[in-house]
Specification:
The chain has four helices and no strands. The radius of gyration is 40 Å and the shape is rod-shaped. It has 202 residues and is an all-alpha fold.
Length: 202
């Protein structure tokens, strides 16, 4: 499916050019413009696909997986820290082993969270590369769009030169039909055509 607004431009120009049945510059120009709009739409569709596959999808995966995982570990670490402080305030009322285990759980969660954040930071080159690919894709799209529009502009200038050098066609109206106004009393209120002459002997 072609991208709006190029799709509408393509269809409008194509239908307009095809609808003008008389030979001339106008129909040719509309068909040229329609073909260029079609090419622009195709290039834009390719850009959308490439951006989604190489930038949006990986970024969405980063948010849904890696960042969610880090948030989960940080939340778990905070819960264990609160549990440790609660038990520390009750020190002397609870076994020392229980307090020691609570502290170990804090250290364990802290290590897991730090590892997750470290692994994410190690992929920063990958994230920058994906952003660079996005910029490259946009640059390529705009280069192709400029090339297509340049080609169309050249065609239009050529059409203008051809139309300017072509001699103007003289308009010759068709002869008017003749009517007989002799009998004014007509039941239908119209103008009667001349009655055909009778064939002798009929």
């Amino acid at each position: 499916m072609y991208t709006f607004p190029y799709a509408n431009g393509y269809r409008t120009c194509e239908e307009g050019g095809a609808g003008i049945t008389l030979p001339g510059t106008c129909s040719d120009v509309l068909l040229d413009a329609g073909e260029s709009m079609k090419r622009l739409a195709e290039v834009k569709n390719l850009l959308d696909i490439e951006v989604k596959q190489n930038f949006i999808d990986p970024l969405q995966n980063l948010c849904d997986k890696d960042l969610q995982e880090i948030q989960h570990h940080l939340k778990k670490l905070e819960g264990r820290r609160l549990d440790f402080h609660y038990k520390k305030e009750r020190q002397g009322k609870i076994p020392e082993e229980e307090l020691r285990q609570a502290l170990e759980k804090i250290e364990e969660s802290k290590e897991v969270a730090e590892t997750s954040m470290h692994n994410l930071l190690e992929t920063d080159i990958e994230q920058v590369s994906q952003l660079s690919a996005l910029v490259d894709a946009q640059l390529d799209y705009h280069r192709q769009a400029v090339q297509i529009l340049d080609e169309l502009a050249d065609k239009l200038k050529e059409r203008i030169r051809d139309a300017s050098s072509r001699p103007k066609r003289e308009y010759k109206p068709k002869p008017r039909e003749t009517y007989d106004f002799g009998d004014a009393d007509q039941s239908n209120g119209g103008f009667p055509r001349k009655a055909p002459s009778k064939v002798p002997g009929s």
